[in-house]
Amino acid sequence: MTATLERPTEDEPEGSRPSPVEGRRFRPTPGGWAGRAAVPVGLLLIALWYTHHFSQGRSDILASGLVIAVGALSLNVLVGYVGQISLGHQAFIGIGSFTASYVIGQSGQSFYVGLLAGAAVGGLQAILLGLIALRVRGLYFALVTLSWGAVAENCIFRLKGFTGGGEGANASRPGGFITDRAFLVMCALVLTVVLLIDWRLVSTKAGRAFQAIRESPQVAANYGINVRLYTLYAFAVAGVYAGIAGALYASRRITVQAGDFTFASIALTYLIVTVVGGLRRRGGIVLFSLFYVLGGEYLPGWVRGLPLPGTLKANAGYLVQAISGVLAIVTLIFQPEGLGTFTAPMGRWLKGERFALGHGGAGAEGVDARP
Amino acid sequence: MPVLEASDVSIRFGGVQALTDVTLRVDEYEIVGLIGPNGAGKTTIFNCITGFYRPQRGKVTFKGVDVSDVGPHDRSAMGMGRTFQNVGLVKTETVLDNMLTAQHAAIDYSPLAGIVGSPTTFGAERRLRQRADALLEILHLGHLRDRPVAGLPYGVLKRVEIATALATDPDLLLLDEPGSGLGPEEADKLGDELLGLRHEFDLTIVMIEHHVPLVVRICDYVYCLNFGQLLTEGKPLEVRNHPEVVAAYLGEEAPEAEAEAERLEAAHLATEMRAADTGEVGV
Prior knowledge:
By secondary structure, chain A is mainly α. Chain A contains 17 helices and two strands. Chain B has a six-stranded mixed sheet with strand order 6-7-8-3-9-10, with helices on both faces. A four-stranded antiparallel sheet of chain B has the order 2-1-4-5, covered by helices on one side. In chain B, a hairpin with a 2-residue loop joins β4 (57-62) and β5 (65-66).
């Protein structure tokens, strides 16, 4: 402790790992930059080849993955940033979806108005749920969200005037984005905007407030953070993301029905994608959303071609769900950062740092300022 | 004008009367010590002052304003900076991020401007960073800037916490056992540092501290609590030599210390006997 009272520069053990300062000074060579630039360009080329070389249906697969990504980012705000669980996200996504299709289909407004309306109503319903979250926490709040999902499924989504009942509600796509290929571009644009918002969220005061609240409401309050207000704010942000995801979902499908928004198909799936992608790891979440839909598309066919018992082949359609569930358990036990374990260092490498697994400047074990 | 005034503060948890009519007054630029045996209610009065507890009776006035109905985050924003006995930091964040989070109330852009990426927020964030770095340098913590808080040793955490408390831009700093875990020499240095910080930031300081020499050296005034009541108050030396304070401290701790010494002696004897049995001497 003595050393910390003076500056212990000489006493600091050197050489064991690059110090954070050195890490910041590192600049890649021109070749290094070229390698880094090649990665996004390569990914873009693969995506272009994949969507243009084959039928339009392939774009739709990717688009559904991007919609899941937006929905999972919404869960990430609640579960990852403020540490509130939501088991009722089918309500979040569904309400956004039906609001958008109501505005687009029944009121005849444009897709963009529907998108904004979905976002706004999604945010409002989330704030209502957030008001409850201020009263009950943990397991009890999880139960509240579970029942909110059930209420939405069994009551709200059955309002014929709102959701069109069994026929479903229509939400046409915006002009210029009618085809699957074009709508994939729309989904990518919206996801990009959501990612940018999320990036600014965590880099500014609200994101830091969320992090503090998640760990200790007491410490957060001591830092001057209004815990109640910022908890509600997190719910609002999550609701807006979910509303946006819902609007995209509706326009991607063109027709949505109450049966599309169930606990298993939305809430559980999105939660698993969020967990396996990695809490607080945007890159991992987007990546696993794509893996999830691509797996759902190609794994069954591939497995059916393998010499396996008939029952396995017959149920191959559920393979990706089963694998994701197992992955979620593995993630929770062994690798809490999920795919983020790999995407986060990749991201730092792309930004021009050295490639290193683990957090830059971390490795706090054995940090001791004693001489 | 007193910076802080707590008058007749009483609080009860179930059947335990934690505080009874505690009154204390802290003037500007004072360093006030709060001493007393374990369980005397020192941290409880801190929690009443900072708003984490709502006393059943009495009121707290801060800079002339009755803050009895003001929440802890607003009191922090008004200029109360506080450290916790068990270290109140966001453990998964780095030291720097904690310093940024702690400046929350000073940030003048709205949270919405932050997430839509308004240009002003980038400059504001840069200024927060500069201020955080400057404070870390003052407390000689600059080299730990990018380290996650989890994993840092206790003594360092106590210092980081003082840095984050300063980052909230306080007029009144409430320190809960800043010297715990320090040896006499280190406590001496901490004392110098606190005096320096008071001078540099125009601070008024209230500190809970068990290290009596530190209290005597830097405090202008001392309150002693015992069983939730004010035992006595006065100049540090007067309080230290007050017979009731001596009784409260030593009268309770002496038997414990004696018992501890006996236990150690017995343990020592046992080891010696074992060593004699196995024929090993002086391992």
